[in-house]
Specification:
about 25% strand, three-stranded mixed beta sheet, three-stranded antiparallel beta sheet, single chain
């Protein structure tokens, strides 16, 4: 069993590999299988059929540093928030990073 690296998006060490089965996967649009997941920002990598494959994929990083995308919360008329970079619905404004695209999300200053 490989030690999982911290989350590349939020830096959390609370990372796990877990099975998302048919009961939980289909309603949420996931394909059943093993996923590596950050339990703080909910970034995920998967699905995989073997735990070692999920661990390897999570721990794999680019050798070059990538520039950090900076986005902001876009709030619609219903009060729902989404990411300005990818449009992902992002209802939890306490998180700093978009779980879909990894953009650092900032609040709009008025």
């Amino acid at each position: 069993m490989a030690e999982l690296k911290p989350c590349p998006f939020c830096g959390s060490r609370w990372v796990q590999v877990r099975w998302i089965g048919f009961r939980n996967a289909k309603p949420s649009g996931f394909t059943p299988g093993l996923y590596a997941e950050c339990t703080d920002c909910f970034a995920m990598k998967g699905p995989y059929s073997e735990k070692e494959d999920a661990e390897y994929a999570w721990n794999r990083r680019d050798d070059n540093e990538r520039p950090v995308k900076i986005g902001h919360y876009v709030t619609d008329e219903m009060g729902d928030s989404s990411c300005s970079e990818c449009g992902e619905k992002y209802l939890d404004i306490t998180k700093r990073f978009c779980p879909e695209c990894g953009a650092e999300l900032r609040r709009n200053e008025k």
